[in-house]
Write a structure and sequence with these properties.
alpha+beta; Arc Repressor Mutant, subunit A; 3-stranded antiparallel β-sheet; 14 strands; 43% helix; elongated
């Protein structure tokens, strides 16, 4: 049984209880975005709750199909002693949304909390730039049974969060805690995993570790472990705390929140993946399978909507869903990790649309520019990759290939028409994919039929 607790910073101008900026990921010096409130100085009082963070949390809870709390929601103090919490407690709200769902996985609750600082175990230094940043925590039900299901859940959740446009780029700052228990053992929590791939690998290791322990007759005890990205193993950190250990109490400095139906109705929800799929089909005439593929990743759907104004919808959707995704999947990266932009994609597709390059050259160009960010037109011009359609230039290459491949020619003449594909490929290889396939096919057919006496 696998469940998750996912923490994502909300995109706001200030921290949850003070006016310090939240952009700790852009700040190189430690302890610059700080004040007495977010560093827990004695006598400091929290400001009123960041309204933008509250609104974002309610919106995301609704996107996750949660029931929004109507009773008073208290902000509580969660006590534990650790260097990243100078006050000795972390402020965390009671659930804002409950009983939601992402695909086949239930969402137990969604709530707000303040981020602690960052404690470096190796140096002993603490950086409070992150302290007090508003986080949304999403707690799933233990409905997942293996690493693949966790990966699918996280990808779908990340996509929904990106559609909300209320979270900081989740690719780099999302943190997940994974809880796993195997029948016969206690629940083990793996802390601070920061990627989908990290969660997948941590679970692969942890499942094997626990099963090996049970096979030896050892007892799997409740504990907290950390995942080492370099070694791909989990390591013990501490005995897992229970709710009683945290000594929750309502924070006396923060009034409880009450979400009326009028308030929640006033929050305009963004376009969901399902609504966007419908719009792509109805407004632009995108094929249903392509539309479904694109909305699974907001960045991919955004790329299409930027590209389709410069070239045909059919060409744009086909190349993005087939070729772009194939190249990204091969590299195991997201679009934002590549150097492919809408401008580069339009430039490439215009070369194809105008028949200036062949499809083979287009695929090779995409494979190159997705890593380099170069101009496709400039590459074509400098490396002379334009389409070759003239029979004069192609005839000599066709004759050369026929002369070099006697067996394939004999196979064709004996009735094996697939040999024509081999000869076609040989011509394309010599022409570096620049040859017009229709002209080559016509020339090959003509030469081979003439040689056969037909």
């Amino acid at each position: 049984m696998i469940g998750m607790e996912i923490h994502v910073p909300l995109k706001t101008q200030r921290k949850l209880f003070c006016d310090c900026p939240i952009n700790y990921w852009d700040v190189e010096e430690p302890n610059l975005n700080t004040c007495p409130v977010c560093t827990g100085m004695p006598g400091s009082k929290p400001y009123p709750l960041n309204e933008g963070a509250v609104e974002a949390a309610v919106m995301i809870a609704e996107l996750l199909e949660c029931e929004i709390a109507r009773d008073n929601v208290f902000v509580k103090r969660k006590h534990y002693d650790y260097p990243d919490l100078p006050s000795g407690y972390q402020r965390t709200s009671e659930p804002i949304g409950v009983e939601g769902r992402v695909g086949d996985v239930g969402i137990w609750e969604v709530h707000l909390e303040e981020d602690p600082g960052r404690y470096d175990l190796k140096t002993g230094n603490v950086d409070y730039n992150r302290s007090g940043v508003p986080l949304i925590e999403i707690v799933s039900a233990p409905d997942m049974k293996g690493p693949a299901e966790v990966r699918d859940f996280m990808r779908e959740l990340v996509n929904i969060l990106r559609y909300s446009e209320r979270v900081v780029d989740v690719g780099g700052v999302m943190r997940a805690d994974v809880n796993i228990s195997i029948k016969g053992g206690a629940k083990v929590e793996i802390k601070n995993i920061n990627s989908v791939a990290g969660a997948f690998k941590a679970l692969q290791y942890e499942i094997i570790r626990q099963k090996n322990m049970m096979a030896r007759g050892a007892v799997v005890r409740q504990e907290t472990r950390g995942f080492d990205e370099k070694t791909q193993v989990t390591r013990p950190q501490r005995v897992k705390e229970t709710a009683a250990d945290y000594r929750y109490i309502p924070d006396p400095d923060i009034p409880p929140q009450h979400f009326t139906e009028e308030y929640t109705a006033s929050i305009e929800l963004p376009e969901t993946p399902q609504l966007r799929r419908k719009r792509l089909i109805e407004e632009y005439g995108v094929r249903e399978d392509y539309a479904q593929t694109m909305v699974r990743d907001k960045d991919i759907a955004d790329l299409f909507e930027e590209v389709k104004g410069g070239v045909g919808v059919e060409l744009a959707s086909m190349w993005i869903c087939r070729e772009v995704l194939r190249q990204l999947n091969y590299r195991s990266i997201d679009l934002r990790e590549s150097k492919l932009s809408a401008a580069i994609m339009v430039e490439l597709l215009k070369l194809l649309e105008s028949d200036e390059i062949t499809e083979n050259v287009g695929k090779k160009l995409l494979e190159r520019v997705i890593d380099s960010g170069e101009s496709p037109s400039k590459i074509v011009e400098e490396e002379r990759l334009g389409r070759v359609s003239g029979e004069g230039e192609l005839s000599s290459v066709v004759d050369e290939v026929i002369g070099e491949n006697v067996k394939a020619v004999a196979d064709y003449k004996s009735g094996e028409k697939t040999a024509l594909n081999f000869l076609m490929g040989a011509v394309m290889k010599k022409m570096r994919g620049r040859a017009d396939s229709k002209v080559v096919l016509e020339l090959l057919g003509r030469r081979l039929d003439d040689d056969s006496g037909r």
